[in-house]
Amino acid sequence: MSSLSISVVICTYNREAYLKLALDSLLKQDIKDYQIVVVDNASTDGTATIVQELLQDNPQLSYVYEPQLGLSVARNTGVKSTNGDIVAYLDDDAIAPPHWLRTLLEVYENDSQVVIAGGKVNLILPEGVSHLPSWLSDDMAIALGFYDLGNEVKQINDAGLTPRGLNYSFRRSFWEEVGGFDVKFDRVGNNLLSNGDLVFTEIAIKNGKKVLYIPMAEVGHNVQPERLTKNWFLRRSWWQGVSEYYRAKDKNTKKSKQFFKASERIARGVYKSIKYYQNPAVRFENVLYAYGQFGYLKHLITK
């Protein structure tokens, strides 16, 4: 019997097409005692019905409605609604293998210094799609959730390599110590603001805590068809720039320094997009790099 308890939280917003698959995978975990909490973040589709149909036969499952839109708000609500020593997040469009929770739990039981752990993320392409578009580089696939640091356990010392939020776990005691996820990095509705989990990991590393990449704790992530378009990636890059602005602001970085760095990045992205014009994937990657900085500068100038 485990000395630690574990809870898993799914924060969901209008994802009825994928939610049932995610829940089915969690209900097939190969450990006996665990808790599943679905945080419905003001969905207007059939989310509530899907969960309600599963509640009667699955006592480990519970449903919480969170009316305030925001991923970090929903994540914090989820933790408050659980009782596990360890809390794991799985996205509502992801699928976990039966050993997922057991693998994560063993990490924390074997090393009391670990406060955050997460694993590989493999992409599940839409039906009828056999490969990623030719204009999409391997590095940009990260924006779709792809995450692979190899087949060995690694300690993360660079917050930029943080486990992805769709496959992310932590000790409740650390969450309480930090005060939860910072809602100013919140993804609300259709905006693509991000970095909440990255900042959470950054705090852990700065405080000398241990963050681990666990390859065996892998999950699959369903790629929605609309995300395989250039327009989606442009929006994603814009909001990534906005997210980076808030990170810099949080660190009290001088505006003049921020302006110079963003301008330098734009110039670098434009130069490389021209230099690698004959390579569609590398060209578009650099277009996105430059475009995101315009989101950064807009907020820098207007906020």
Q: Quick one: CATH superfamily of the largest domain?
A: Spore Coat Polysaccharide Biosynthesis Protein SpsA, Chain A
Q: Considering DSSP H and I runs of 4 or more, what fraction of the residues is helical?
A: 40-55%
What's the gyration radius in Å? 19 Å
Category from helices, strands and their pairing: alpha/beta
Architecture of the largest domain in CATH? Alpha-Beta Complex
Largest sheet: 8 strands, mixed
Mean pLDDT: 93
Shape type: globular
Fold and architecture overview:
There is one protein chain. The protein has 303 residues and is α/β, with parallel strands linked by helices. It folds into two domains: 6-228, Spore Coat Polysaccharide Biosynthesis Protein SpsA, Chain A, CATH 3.90.550.10; 230-302. 41% of the residues lie in helices and 16% in strands. The protein is built from nine helices and eleven strands. The protein has helices at residues 16-26, 47-55, 71-80, 100-110, 172-178, 196-206, 230-250, 255-275, 280-302, and strands at 6-12, 35-40, 61-65, 86-90, 94-95, 114-118, 121-124, 154-155, 167-171, 210-213, 219-222. It has an eight-stranded mixed β-sheet with strand order 3-2-1-4-9-6-10-8, with helices on both faces. A three-stranded mixed β-sheet has the order 5-11-7. Helix 1 (16-26) links the parallel strand 1 (6-12) and strand 2 (35-40). Helix 7 crosses helix 9 and helix 8 runs antiparallel to helix 9. The model has no long low-confidence stretch (mean pLDDT 93).
Give the SSE layout.
Layout: E1 6-12, H1 16-26, E2 35-40, H2 47-55, E3 61-65, H3 71-80, E4 86-90, E5 94-95, H4 100-110, E6 114-118, E7 121-124, E8 154-155, E9 167-171, H5 172-178, H6 196-206, E10 210-213, E11 219-222, H7 230-250, H8 255-275, H9 280-302
Parallel strand pairs: 1-2, 1-4, 2-3, 6-10, 7-11
Antiparallel strand pairs: 4-9, 5-11, 6-9, 8-10
Helix pairs in contact: 7-9, 8-9
